[in-house]
Amino acid sequence: MPNYPGGARYRRAMPADPRAVLTRPAPAPDLTVAYGDHPDQVADLRRPAGVGPARPLVVVVHGGFWRAEYDRRHTGPLAAALAAEGYPVAQVEYRRTGQPGGGWPGTLTDALAGIAALPELAAEALPGRVSGAAPILIGHSAGGHLALYAAATAPSTVGGVLALAPVADLAAAYRLDLDSGAVAALLGGGPLDFPDRYAAADPRSLVPIQTRTVVVHGSVDHQVPVAMSRDFVVAARAAGSDISLVELPGCEHFGLIDPESSAWPRVLGVLRSLHDDH
């Protein structure tokens, strides 16, 4: 398993409430662009700090079990921290369950459309700072599912994937009843009800994923069990995927998106490795 570096200056103690990152204020994005006509078919862009050459866009795909009550704003601290490191960043939004157009298939088609359109939109909005290379995706939880789904079904639009505690097996997540029926809300029911939807949307059914992928998961995650990532990475590698797992002992679900957490140096180190390989 690779030993990804992390900068010592980023090390922090884990906050008392790991969920605090979800509501922590962050600097406002530099601008918002639309990739479609719906109000949620948008992305917030952040200009990279400093000066330097154009770099591949980093697209942050937020989690929240695809539900309408969670939106891109909770990834503001992560996105701002990445921009401070010199990365051009887009926080993509998408229609979610519980709102018109969300669920099957709108949530998935929005993710594909946004990821495909954002490099050009960001290059126009941030001249000289975004290269023409396919973006690196950072997806957390349900956003990790969408990032893996995009890499599997539209590989030309994805340059690399950093999947943070992803919901990588929708059928297993349905059986485990993660977040009280979240997968059923996304796909309309269970695998026996809609086998074609699961076959089309479940990363476990879509391997191999040729795009370079690193999965990072905490060992004490109570929202998405780490066993799901372990099993997925084993299956994906056996199928020929370019994928690896970084398991963080003692880390829970939300520390992976918190720049003030002890997990952050490892997350940042993996991103740097993906960027260098890109």
UniProtKB/TrEMBL annotation:
User: Which keywords does this chain's UniProt record carry?
Assistant: Hydrolase
Superkingdom of source:
Bacteria
Q: Which residues form the BD-FAE-like domain?
A: 44-232
Question: One Pfam family this chain carries?
Answer: BD-FAE
Q: Which InterPro entries match?
A: AB_hydrolase_fold, BD-FAE-like_dom, GDXG_lipolytic_enzyme
Q: Which GO terms describe its molecular function?
A: hydrolase activity
Protein name (database record): BD-FAE-like domain-containing protein
Native source organism of the sequence: Micromonospora lupini str. Lupac 08
Q: What is the lineage of its organism?
A: Bacteria, Bacillati, Actinomycetota, Actinomycetes, Micromonosporales
